[in-house]
Amino acid sequence: MKNDLPPNPLRRRLLTSGSKGLAVLAIGPSLLSMSRPINASLTGAGELQAPDSLGIRLPIGFSSRLIAAAGQRLEKDRWWRRTRYRWHTYPDGGATFATNDGGWIYVSNSETLSFLGGGASAVRFSHDGIVEDAYRILGDTNVNCAGGPTPWGTWLSCEEVDFGRVFECDPQGQMPATVRPALGYFKHEAVAVDTLFENLYLTEDEGNGRLYKFIPAGVNSDGNLNLDAGTLQVASVDNQGYVSWIDVPNPTPSIFQTPTREQVPESTAFDGGEGIWYANGFVYFTTKGDNKVWRLDTNLNHLDVIYDAATSSNPILTGVDNVTVSPGGDVLVAEDGGDMQIVVIDAQGKVAPLLQVVGQDDSEITGPAFSPDGTRLYFSSQRGSALFGGGNGFGITYEIRGPFGDFLSL
């Protein structure tokens, strides 16, 4: 896939030079944050204030903007100047991608059926954050829930249906999306790329779902990981938290064959795998059935729980869903239900809300992702309505601006 995303001079060298070089890329955001004034982690951003005009509660110093609403054209720099494309319904997982002109693209999935517009769309922003365009990058797929970005600038969109697939998409929308069967046929939720060891990790949204690892068959001629061939493995966790990875015998079963999660009896079940994100040598993921946030050390192959609503002294986070990591290293978890909050977990395990959407209790927060420069946070209310002051609808996508770079999780 070719696009005008900015070339990363480290990417090809790091993907082929082993872990020593890749460690530099992995810790880069945290080192950059150290050059800024350090107040605390985002758990110390402050108390949430009264709802603003969009019904969003934020700490002092932060502000919100409506970017897109389902079925409506996106506003550019004037209310009468709008994109031709109408935003998709039921927005879900998302990520951002820098462009050569200093702008960026926010990609968002549509969690609905193919004949209702399932797939994924993108919003392109100028260097100063003005909406320039919106367009579809994937269509004719079903219940695209979450997914994940790749280091080479593509979006992996996951189908959350039985025997669902993963599609690799061009955020520019210039190249057609490509299905990647080697990543397995199962009820996919999300995927994260470990740039250090060059593996992919995938969650499965089933009550007895599994955690998977995909080992690509080397790199392509363009220096990107080969997602067309490789080995799909499933996690088996011992009572000390150490993970063994076992090959899945048949990663692409048909509807009449044994599902991947049942093919390896000694593998470990996870209660409803949801969002997953890689940062600084760790993979973070959530399980909605037991309201836990997990952390996998991809070097030691050790798994632990960094948040459990059942045992936490401050159990404010429930309905755990999509997850991302801030430029300063805080883990941000979006709630599906709960109090409609994005909740921060810092390096010390402290939890605090970063924002709350009010008046949309029947919705869920989806797709949290920071702009490439770390100054803006995007997310959606999947079933919110821009026409009726929140309430029930088909989805709204927001932008939050604030001093994110001033907070470092220590």
Automatic annotation (TrEMBL):
InterPro entries listed in its UniProt record: 6-blade_b-propeller_TolB-like, PhoX, WD40
Transmembrane segments: none
Signal sequence, renumbered to the chain: none
Gene3D superfamilies registered for this protein in UniProt: TolB, C-terminal domain
Pfam families assigned to the protein according to its UniProt record, in alphabetical order: PD40, PhoX
Domain of life: Bacteria
Xref: PANTHER family: MEMBRANE PROTEIN (PTHR35399:SF4), SLR8030 PROTEIN (PTHR35399)
This protein's name: DUF839 domain-containing protein
Organism per entry: Exilibacterium tricleocarpae
